[in-house]
Amino acid sequence: MSTHLEHPVTLQDLTTRHVRILLILAEEPRHGYVISQKIEDETDGRVTLRPGSLYRALHQLLERGLIRERNDPDEDPRRRMYALTGAGRRALTTELDGMGRLVAHGRKLGVLNRNA
């Protein structure tokens, strides 16, 4: 039987949806609804995650050990809070570094202007 620890996360394993969620959780632990609202706010409404898509992505990240559920004794136990793990932070760093190199290459080729 294989676990997420035996297979490191590679760039192609993470979707843009996963990266957005990890980036939001890098700030602080959050509830699912707050995650979806932050994504919508930060993309000026261009990206909206419906509950099914959001919770499917959260489940995938939980299975990979990139996030964990965090219990808050002051909160309603039915509300799930999600937090970034060390593995999640490393995966996010790797992914953002790769994206940065793609953007730099696009600028070098003139596909993106410097102010984009």
What does this structure look like?
The protein is mainly alpha-helical and 116 residues long. The chain has one domain (11-108): Orthogonal Bundle (Arc Repressor Mutant, subunit A). It has 4 helices and 3 strands. A 3-stranded antiparallel beta sheet has the order 1-3-2. Helix 1 packs across helix 2 (32-42) and helix 1 (16-27) crosses helix 4 (86-108). The protein is elongated and about 50 Å long. Mean pLDDT is 86; it is low at 1-7.
Into how many domains do the coordinates divide? 1
| Proportion of residues in extended strands | 5-15%
Output mean pLDDT.
Answer: 86
Number of helices: 4
Q: Within the CATH hierarchy, at the fold level, what is the topology?
A: Arc Repressor Mutant, subunit A
Biggest sheet character: 3 strands, antiparallel
Strand order of the largest sheet: 1-3-2
CATH superfamily: Winged helix-like DNA-binding domain superfamily/Winged helix DNA-binding domain
CATH class: Mainly Alpha
What topology does this entry show?
Blueprint: H1 16-27, E1 30-31, H2 32-42, H3 51-63, E2 67-70, E3 81-84, H4 86-108
Antiparallel strand pairs: 1-3, 2-3
Task: Give a nutshell description of this structure.
Helix 1 (16-27) packs across helix 2 (32-42) and helix 1 (16-27) packs across helix 4.
Properties at a glance:
4 helices, elongated, three-stranded antiparallel beta sheet, 116 residues
